[in-house]
Design brief:
Helix content is 38%, strand content 12%. By secondary structure, the chain is α/β, with parallel strands linked by helices. An eleven-stranded mixed beta sheet has the order 1-3-2-4-6-5-10-11-9-7-8, with helices on both faces. A hairpin with a 5-residue loop joins strand 10 and strand 11. Helix 2 runs antiparallel to helix 3.
Length: 498
């Protein structure tokens, strides 16, 4: 077991995604060699970390062979040619088990691919496998998985964050250059911060949700993990765009995100969310203040902004999200697919199936959601929470009249020890205090690894932007990255593919 002061995670593995793709497309590097190195590394090290629920080795080798064949014929295999990518195990993959880390979906293989998966494959990416998560994406530590917790590569006695902890840890450990996660209340950004990688929640509707197993449909978004802001922008640009299979998908062209990385921050207006700083650790506050200084020196104007309404987002979220989950998870009834526990009649079969298939946290949220939607309580709880959601959106709108992006901590603290918060759900929920408001508003936000605390654990800084403000957000992210503490991100792994 490694400690926080030991070797950095992934000290001898993959380069960044853009470099791998460039070298594969030029013929300098074979995709087959990338696949073998990754699969060997996962086989030797993932037993300790448990990033993956399933490794799709043979499919990865076949995809690599096809990429190499295209290169040999002079064809373009795509912008992610030969790049290893990990998929959160709530993204549907045709003929490959998709479990959501729940016993409820044991033995189920989807009959179709999620849109984001199809776009990755079309871009030449190599899918390594399906990553562990909190069951049905409900959690902040990846300890709620039916298959056991994932461990943080920086310190295996600590959590990687959640719910996309497997994806974040896979990138931090060097098992994949890129990964996809889903973010309902911070489930990409919070584990990105705790694992020292870049994580982005896009504008709601910019990336298709078709094939993402639903938790809370008005909040869920698919987004990237990467070791650099440039790689995250490349992956987001690849998966973004209108999808007729998703009725909430936005129309219009995809912003040219990778081009934005060269624009700098001269003249960018940055607001520091003052209200979040009182609830963050000293290391997280220092990272935000130092990040603001980096942006100021790079040419941005910086000011503190007061947004007290954002602090009410947590209580509103934990009424709205469980209500939507209660509705979405009603489909798991033992009849249509997945687990089935027989009973004397349909009602008993349904009850037994759900009791056996869902873990404690999922059952807790279903019961809470059903309660707030019930007659006599709907107006007092659910409707009131939606009004608070509107207040949060209005607060953001007010702020963005004066600034282009906002700066805040991503999480209240660095990665905490395994088991430290499992007995106190409220304490666990507070891990999402700074990330939830962006989901309620449907806005983009990203976490950039920026500093190390006194124990050598990574600290992320969050950049928030208005709807479709990814360009400004990425400009700020690149500047933050350039001024980050050396070693603050999960280092790329030098080795055979570098």
């Amino acid at each position: 077991m490694s400690g926080a002061g030991g070797p950095r995670p992934g000290a001898e593995g993959l380069s960044d995604a853009a470099s791998i793709a460039s070298r594969v497309r030029s013929g300098e590097l074979r995709a087959a060699d990338v696949a073998e190195q990754v699969l060997g590394d996962v086989e030797s090290r993932d037993a300790e970390l448990h990033c993956f629920n399933l490794v799709t080795g043979e499919a990865m080798r076949a995809a690599a062979a096809e990429v190499d064949r295209l290169v040999a014929t002079g064809a373009d295999p795509g912008p992610l040619a030969g790049v290893p990518v990990a998929l959160k195990d709530n993204l549907c993959t045709k003929g490959v088990p998709t479990t959501c880390s729940s016993r409820m979906l044991e033995g189920w293989s989807p009959p179709y691919d999620a849109t984001v998966v199809r776009r990755l494959v079309a871009a030449g990416a190599l899918v390594v496998g399906k990553t562990n998560l909190d069951e049905f994406a409900m959690g902040s530590s990846t300890e709620n998985s039916a298959f056991g917790p994932t461990r943080n590569p920086w310190d295996t006695g600590r959590v990687p964050g959640g719910s996309s902890g497997g994806s974040a840890a896979a990138v931090a450990a060097g098992f994949a250059a890129l990964a996809l996660g889903s973010d309902t209340g911070g489930s990409i950004r919070q584990p990105a911060a705790l694992c020292g990688v870049v994580g982005i929640k896009p504008t709601y509707g910019l990336v298709s949700r078709y094939g993402l197993v639903a938790f809370a449909s008005s909040l869920d978004q698919v987004g990237p993990f990467a070791t650099t802001v440039a790689d995250a922008a490349l992956l987001l640009e690849t998966i973004a765009g209108h999808d007729e299979m998703d009725s909430t998908s936005l129309g219009g062209p995809v912003p040219r995100l990778t081009e934005a990385l060269r624009s700098g921050v001269d003249g960018l207006r940055v607001g520091v969310v003052r209200d979040f700083l009182a609830d963050a650790s000293a290391d997280c506050v220092a990272a935000v203040r130092n990040g603001a200084d980096v942006l100021s020196r790079a040419g941005a104007s910086v000011e503190d902004v007061a947004l007290p309404e954002l602090l009410h987002g947590l209580s509103a979220y934990y009424l709205i999200a469980p209500a939507e989950a209660s509705s979405n998870l009603a489909r798991y009834d033992g009849v249509r697919y997945g687990l089935r526990v027989d009973g004397e009649d349909v009602e008993q079969m349904n009850a037994r199936t759900r009791a056996a298939g869902f873990g404690p946290e999922v059952r807790r949220r279903i019961m809470l959601g059903t309660y707030v939607l019930s007659a006599g309580y709907y107006d007092a709880y659910y409707a009131q929470a939606q009004r608070v959601r509107t207040l949060v959106a209005r607060a953001f709108a007010r702020a963005y009249e004066h600034v282009d992006v906002l700066l805040a901590p991503t999480a209240p603290s660095v990665a905490f020890p395994l088991g430290a918060k499992t007995e106190d759900p409220l304490e666990m929920y507070l891990a999402d205090l700074f990330t939830i408001p962006s989901n309620l508003a449907g806005h983009p936000a990203m976490s950039v690894p920026f500093a190390l605390d006194g124990q050598g654990l990574p600290v992320g800084v969050q950049v928030l932007a208005p709807a479709l403000g990814e360009v400004a957000m990425l400009r700020a992210g690149v500047a933050l990255e350039s001024g980050a503490t050396p070693g603050a991100r999960g280092p790329v792994r030098p080795g055979a593919v570098v």
